[in-house]
Design brief:
By secondary structure, this protein is of the alpha+beta class. It has five helices and three strands. The chain has two domains: 46 residues; 74 residues, Histidine-containing Protein, Chain: A (2-Layer Sandwich). The longest helix is centred in the N-terminal third of the chain and has 33 residues. The protein starts with a helix and ends in a 5-residue tail after the last helix.
Length: 140
């Protein structure tokens, strides 16, 4: 009797059950979306290939660069000083020819841990001429 009266007035006695069912469906949908997003992000992250340069301590890097220069037969007798700071290798000193300098730069860049090379070397003839120019008295 009460059910018939509620039906006649327009009140649905199944409404709480339907609301519970809709809430369950919405919860499942939300959970599925979260899981799909997480899985997508994980898969996208796996596909990236990063260029990872190993971190090498400066003293070790300096030793490795010096060893690489000494081991190259084309660079025997090259008088170049090496210093490293945070992966940046600084070369200083004098070189005989530009092909030798190019070879040295190539060898240094090939050493693991070298991020960049700061070339402060000068050609041997320029190094010999620089002190003579500085010692000459200025004309009056």
């Amino acid at each position: 009797m009460i059910t018939g009266l509620l039906y006649a007035v327009g009140v649905d006695h199944h409404q709480p059950q339907r609301m519970r069912h809709m809430n369950q469906r919405f919860s499942r949908l939300a959970l599925n979306l979260v899981l799909a997003g997480t899985l997508s992000a994980a898969l996208l992250g796996c596909g990236k290939e990063e260029n990872i340069t190993p971190v090498v301590e400066d003293s070790v890097l300096t030793s490795n660069v010096k060893a690489a220069i000494a081991a190259d037969p084309e660079l025997k007798g090259l008088d170049i000083q090496v210093a490293a700071n945070a992966g940046v290798v600084e070369l200083s000193g004098a070189f005989d020819s530009y092909p030798k300098l190019d070879r040295a730069l190539s060898v240094v860049r090939g050493v693991t841990g070298v991020k960049s090379v700061d070339d402060k070397t000068i050609k041997r003839e320029e190094a010999a001429a620089a002190p003579a120019t500085a010692a000459a008295p200025a004309p009056q």
